[in-house]
From TrEMBL:
The keyword Kinase does not apply. Belongs to the CPA3 antiporters (TC 2.A.63) subunit C family. The chain crosses the membrane at residues 6-23, 30-51, 71-92. Pfam families: Oxidored_q2 (PF00420). It is a multi-pass membrane protein. This is Na(+)/H(+) antiporter subunit C. The lineage of its organism: Bacteria, Bacillati, Actinomycetota, Actinomycetes, Micrococcales. Residues 118-185 are annotated as: Disordered. Keywords: Cell membrane, Membrane, Transmembrane, Transmembrane helix.
Length: 185
């Protein structure tokens, strides 16, 4: 399998540029970065496909191409299209509401950014070792495995609902027996 070094370099540059663009706060740049990542993924699948061959039909002789990377490429194209359409709708709505496509910091983001290392350690030390050992919400009560009980196991419940209890009579009434009893009466 002879893969061109140029394709590998282009794929690496597309991945790097896509990740860099997705780190921006502008939704348009996030969209461009996602499109670059989608194209880099398609190029990766093209590289993985190997040497091109004949179409993979039954009875075809000679070198045939692998159909799996082709199917994965089609899937990647569809996913890239769907997420791009969603991002475009998100950008359009953001532009309608605020005349900008940047993601702004909210109050929680600002408070999280302004936390100091001492406050971080304080938040980490709030849990005690006793709380870490508890695995259920029922602390202090003995737990046991789940036991499945049937309706007949509950004698205290007086219910008129029919139960699956075998008929104690030795005779089983079939359709022919029902007709015979109806004729006798």
């Amino acid at each position: 399998m002879d893969v061109s070094l140029t394709l590998i370099v282009i794929m690496a540059v597309l991945f790097a540029a896509g990740v860099y663009a997705m780190m921006e706060r502008s939704l348009t740049r996030v969209l461009i970065g996602f499109l670059l990542l989608g194209n880099a993924t398609n190029l990766l699948l093209l590289i993985v496909m190997g040497v091109p061959g004949k179409a993979p039909f039954f009875g075809e002789e000679g070198a045939i191409s692998d159909p799996l990377p082709q199917a994965l490429t089609l899937t990647a194209i569809v996913i890239t299209f769907a997420v791009s359409a969603f991002l475009l709708a998100l950008i359009y709505r953001s532009w309608q509401l605020g005349q900008a496509d940047t993601v702004e910091d909210d109050v929680d983001d600002i408070a999280l950014r302004e936390r100091t290392d001492a406050e971080e350690e304080l938040f980490d030390d709030e849990s005690s070792p006793d709380e870490e050992e508890a695995t259920t919400d029922f602390v202090g009560t003995a737990t046991s495995p789940i036991t499945v009980l049937h309706m007949r196991d509950h004698a205290a419940i007086d219910d008129d609902a029919p139960m699956d209890v075998p008929d104690p009579s030795p005779r089983s009434a079939g359709p022919a027996d029902d007709d015979a009893e109806g004729d006798r009466s």
